[in-house]
Automatic annotation (TrEMBL):
CDD domains: LuxR_C_like, REC_NarL-like. The keyword Ribonucleoprotein does not apply. The keyword DNA-binding applies. Coiled coil: none annotated. Residues 4-118 form the Response regulatory domain. Keywords: DNA-binding, Phosphoprotein, Transcription, Transcription regulation. It holds the Pfam family GerE. Residues 147-212 form the HTH luxR-type domain. This is Response regulator, LuxR family. The modification 4-aspartylphosphate is found at D53.
């Protein structure tokens, strides 16, 4: 039987390119464009593996992976991303993923990576692995701000609220997304600002970027089909 694959990417052309790469050897059971839809689709459809972009709206890919591993630990997770920085790689594997593939290498690596992960093995793009080794041998003199910010002690719900604030949602929109009251959203925002020692939405957005809740946009790369 072909493995059942779920794709989570908010760039339609990229997702379609990934589908073309896998359609001959996999059963494509769905495609979603945000992290909340990803969690729901995994719980509903129970794919063998989910391919997850880190920079997903509403709920970033890493936090979505953390939720999936709690709700459906048997589902394999493989990250597809433009970002090869050490922080994102480390946080991805801490979140429970089994594979990490750079989008610029998808055409050459994706199918092999999917097969490796489904066999219970780990897979990391060679260029990412080389970069991690280089950083281990020659660590930066200055620690990454993301590594420092990652230990700010925010709760899961606070991280969700912070991401939605950084994405520009109003308190009313956040309340609807999280199914809570506007008063609860405002309470969380006040607590987050106090905890982080910031005083504006712009500073909250900067912090959200620093800890990877939202990622600075890059030009998406459409994987080429081998057909």
């Amino acid at each position: 039987m072909k493995p059942r694959v779920l794709i989570a990417d908010d760039h339609t052309l990229v997702a379609e390119g990934i589908e073309r790469l896998l359609e001959r050897e996999c059963d494509l059971c769905g495609r979603v464009a945000d992290g909340r839809a990803l969690v729901q689709a995994v719980e509903r459809d129970k794919p063998d593996i989910a391919l997850v972009d880190i920079a997903l709206p509403l709920l970033n890919g890493l936090d979505a992976c953390r939720q999936i591993k709690k709700a459906a630990p048997e589902v394999k997770l493989l990250v597809l991303t433009m970002h090869g920085e050490q922080y994102f790689v480390t946080e991805a594997f801490r979140a429970g993923v089994s594979g990490y593939v750079l989008k610029q290498s998808v055409a050459e690596e994706l199918l092999f990576a999917v097969k490796e992960v489904l066999k219970g093995r780990m897979y990391v793009s060679p260029s990412v692995a080389e970069n991690l080794v280089e950083q281990a041998l020659h660590p930066s003199a200055e620690p990454l701000s993301t590594e420092t910010a990652a230990h700010d002690g925010l709760s899961v719900r606070q991280r969700e609220v912070l991401q939605l604030i950084a994405e520009g949602q109003s308190a009313k929109e956040i309340a609807s997304t999280l199914n809570v009251s506007i008063k609860t959203v405002e309470f969380h925002k006040t607590r987050i600002m106090k905890q982080l020692g910031v005083h504006s939405t712009a500073e909250l957005t900067k912090h959200a970027i620093a800890i990877g809740l939202i990622v600075m946009p890059q030009q998406p790369t459409v994987p080429e089909s081998r057909v």
